[in-house]
Amino acid sequence: MEVRREEMGKGKSELRIAMEELSMPCPGDDEEEQQQQQRQKRSSTMDLLCVSKHLIHVLGEIGPTLLVLRQDVQQNVQRLQDVLARDPSKYASLTAIVTEEVEEGTSKKVNSCTRSILWLARSINFSQHLLEVLLNTRDQSSLEEIVEKAYTFTLKPWHGWIASAAYRVAQKLIPERVIFIAFLMGICQEFEDFAGDVKVLVSIVQPLLEEANAILVKHNLDKLKST
Asked: Glycolipid transfer protein domain: which residues (predicted)?
């Protein structure tokens, strides 16, 4: 946490810090080979945790509106951290975690790691959609409208009445668009650089979401809903 705050103090945005933590090797003559080796060494479980932790801070800046979602992300992060700590090698990949729980018959339980992976992936998808709409609409839509679009498109179909009601109650507390963008950009960044960071981060995160979705679809777990 202190390291993250120190980096923010140097002008780096939350997105830039996440990019650096998830980044591939620097371009070079053997860039493709380096990237392949890097992908083989990476842990998709650790990458999901990394993105999700940064997501918690971003959701915090949106305000009380997404308190329920932020708490849900925190709970799921902790669950995955606990299982990874038990055996970092065995549970290095999301596929390994889901496969084991499917074989044990525990994948659909409320406190399963499979559900944690599912909801973290959905939350990241929500954030990705929010950022893309934020860039594409420029000054045409308020942050409230953008969050509403992202929520309707990504999370609403899977939320039960409790989560949906909590979202509606606090919907009017979303901050102004300019304030949120200022947080995302950091203190030493132009909008064009911020837009570039979003595109790079999305490209890095996409394979992670694809792995999670592939194993969930394989075992018909991708359409589980909250209560």
From this structure: 45-184
**Cα 123 from Cα 23, distance rounded (Å):** 21
Q: Is residue 27 part of a domain?
A: no
Mapped onto helix, strand or coil, the DSSP state of residue 96 is helix
Domain of 117, in residue numbers? 2-19+40-218
| Residue 133: inside a domain | yes
CA dihedral 58, 62, 66, 67 (to 10 degrees): 80
Q: What are the helix (H) ranges across 138-186? A: 143-154, 161-170, 177-185
Position 24 in a domain: no
Provide the 3-class DSSP secondary structure of residue 170.
helix
Closest of 174, 156, 173, 154 to residue 165, by C-alpha: 156
The reported pLDDT for the residue numbered 101 is 97
Amino acid 127: pLDDT: 86
- Number of structural domains, the chain? 1
Tokens of 168: 């509606």
Judged against a pLDDT cut of 60, whether residue 64 lies above it is answered with yes
98-116 tens-digit pLDDT:
999 999 999 999 999 999 9
Determine the angle formed by the axes of helices 177-185 and 44-62, rounding to 10 degrees: 140
CATH number of the domain where residue 207 is located: 1.10.3520.10
**99 belongs to a structural domain:** yes
> How many CA within 13 A on the CB side of residue 183?
16
* pLDDT confidence tier of residue 27, bands split at 50, 70 and 90: very low
At residue 101, the 3 state secondary structure works out as helix
